[in-house]
Amino acid sequence: MSSASWVRTPALLSGVDPRGQFPDWHAFSGSDRIRFGSSAPIESSFGETALEVGAGIAARVNQTTSVYAHADYRWSLGGDSRQTATQGTIGIRFNW
């Protein structure tokens, strides 16, 4: 579950659209257990609250083409384990 907030800032250059996001995530806690034959069970716990910060930019090349880049960083605020994640995306978009 996420509540995301996108922030659009005024473009400094024509055709450039910077963006930012600040979602918070919450996964409900629980655990799973599996056993193979008579072996000891394997247990896994899950659940966390995390905060994410992201920034990106889209730039128009012409009337039908734009390029974009976006990066996110996420870190857990609680739960069974502390984790961080980094993600990035680049691409090109065509409209017709």
Structure description:
The model has no long low-confidence stretch (mean pLDDT 81). It is elongated and about 65 Å long. Helix content is 0%, strand content 70%. Strands 1, 2, 3, 4, 5, 6 and 7 form a seven-stranded antiparallel sheet that branches. The chain contains no helices and seven strands. The chain is an all-beta fold and 96 residues long.
| Total beta strands | 7
Q: Which H/E pattern describes the elements?
A: EEEEEEE
For the largest beta-sheet, the strand count, sense and barrel status come to: 7 strands, antiparallel
Instruction: Describe the global form.
Output: elongated
Q: What's the helix count?
A: 0
Strand content: over 45%
State Rg.
Answer: 20 Å
Helix content: under 10%
**First and last CA, distance:** 34 Å
Q: Helix- and strand-based class? A: mainly beta
Quaternary organisation:
single chain
Query: What value does the average pLDDT take?
Result: 81
Low-pLDDT runs of 5+ residues are none
